[in-house]
Design a protein that fits this description.
This protein has one domain: RutC-like (60s Ribosomal Protein L30, Chain: A), CATH 3.30.1330. It is of the alpha+beta class. Helix content is about 30%, strand content about 30%. Strand 2 (about 20-25) and strand 3 form a beta hairpin. It is built from three helices and eight strands. Helix 2 packs parallel to helix 3. Strands 1-2-3-8-6-7 form a six-stranded mixed sheet, with helices on one face. It has a two-stranded antiparallel sheet with strand order 4-5. The longest helix has 18 residues, at about 45-65.
Amino acid sequence: MTVQRFSSNGPWESLYGYSRAVKAGPWIVSAGCTATVDGDVRCAGDPAGQTKEAFRIALDAIVDAGASVGEVVRTRMYITDPAHADAVGRAHGELFGVVKPAATLVVAARLLHPDHLVEVEVEAYHP
């Protein structure tokens, strides 16, 4: 099986030794993605906005690796406050309502940056 690694050249990828996405056979998985772009946290204080931005980053990596949004089979969302669950869930529904991947939503004590409200992961199956 061939394994390919894809980088977005994000600042933490080289420092922490990970890839934005990895394609292993028909599977493509993203790393955890937040709403951080060029070192700045986008949509501060807006859990729905951060969800959409984080999924945009993850989906760009999945598409760069050869899959489509329709091939997404699993998503994971990590939030820092249970009060954000509805906004994050609805944003997920806007993006994946037709695809309906298996999804997990977890409340975490904290994410890397104090302004991060949401972190997401995406898995796709591209036969």
